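#onboarding

Welcome to the new folks! Below is a worked example of what a typical request in this channel looks like: someone posts a single protein sequence, and someone else replies with the predicted structure as tokens. Don't worry about understanding the tokens yet, we'll cover that in week two.

Example request:
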Amino acid sequence: MQNVADIFAAWPSDAEFGRDIGVPYPTVSAWKQRESIPAAYWWHIIRAAAQRGHPEITADLLARLHARKASNGRPSGFSEEEQPTIPEAPETLKPEDGPNGSTAAGHFSRWKHLRRANFASPAEITAHISALREEWDRR
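Example response:
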């Protein structure tokens, strides 16, 4: 199986697929159109597939089919984050970095240094939030 559509093809019809896992046909149709099945239903799909004689449908297969793919081998995210290095946080914002005469790549690019990927650990995120709260309280 090479894609999510192959999972649906293991059943005679989308209606039977839905009956086997306990969801209505329109829900199955929406999943098929999106080419994505919510993880909350994977266990039901694996169980129903085994009952229909499709032991090749496993949790590993579903996870592999739903994994995000990026051209550089990293998980996909914001286009600005797909640069080879992460820039340091700006000390001050220049007037030309604003939304009107913007030289930035995107609407929120000047806040890129605050994205989750730029913190090494959850503790750093917590410390940063605490510092922001203290600064707010001082004002």
